[in-house]
Amino acid sequence: MRQGADRVDAATPVERDRAVDALRALAILGVVLGHWLVTALVADGRALHTASPLQHMPWLAPISWVFQTLAVFFLVGGHVATRSYASARARGTTYGHWLAARLSRLFKPVAAVLTVWTVITVALLLAGAEFETIRTLVKLALSPLWFLVVFAGLTAATPLLTRLHLLWPLAVVLHVDLLRFGLGGPSWLGWVNVAAGWLVPYVLGAAWTRGELDRRRAGWLLFTGGAAVTTALVAWAGYPASMVGVSGAGVSNLNPPTLAAVTFGLAQCGLALLLRDRLRRAMHRPLAWAAVALVNLSAMTIFLWHQTSLMATTTTGLPLGHLPGLHTLPDNLTWVAARVAWLPVFALFLTLCRTTFRSLEQSPRRPNVRPSRVIRVHQSPAPGRPRGRTTATPSAP
Fold it and tell me: What is the pTM of this model?
């Protein structure tokens, strides 16, 4: 393992900012662990339905503050996309070719998810499974796709967003919430925040590319300001304390994003910026860097299949009865302890999914073929000199 990690470390370009990859890996793993901890599939007779421990134990809301890390992913995505687009323009690459290359890695794994779950859905219908169970499973399996649609839209708009200030989308989110909650506007208006809300950390990533966030003062301002505003919104404006959706709750901070979710994301982005130097130092340890590189190589595969891994574990265990932490109602700390014990099993199923589908995300390797001999043809000499000849010489190493 150490030898493999040393090879990965040695093969990494010196100029690569490893902190960016570390933040992306932490964001993906935060979402995965968060879903595994707060999503329960409760067996009720022949049907399965979703439940959340945050519904029965609302005092566990701080868990969502740790694992709701989507803002960090959009921050890194905005930073990488704007940097990539600037580099493509410098090379003379067209916008179309650049966008196709960016989106292909996002959507190739989606085809596999849709195909597999189409087959599973048809099989469950033919087997006579409860419609409620089928709806629950399909909804969970395909729920990560909303993220890809938003992220792809922002990626496509990158050339227009490179100079956009975060105050503009933040103002949109503020006014949408004022209309919805303050003036009794229609609830559908909140879906405007799906684009505007995640645009805030994305354009913050563009500001990072421009060098506007290099000073630690910017990180502290975002962290303290975002945390203070979020606290005020939760304490005095009636926003939920949970930063993820909770079954049965009247208002969700995430679906669609509210002002509280956006300001909380700003605090997370500020913390991420403050941690950059420490992450760079940590990533010079070969084992730590190899682990981060492994996650980044299959980031979309991990993201798309983590809910399927949870459901595979749950349905596989059904013949054994209603197992604690897997099929039972998440209404006490015993369930939480049991769920933590199930996490390695979820990870095992996810590893199997990653092994099966990772090739769809990773570009095929070019064969490392080198000719053993190179034919060098010498031109005919000037008149009066001997004629040249064709010789074969070994290629350079």
Answer: 0.88
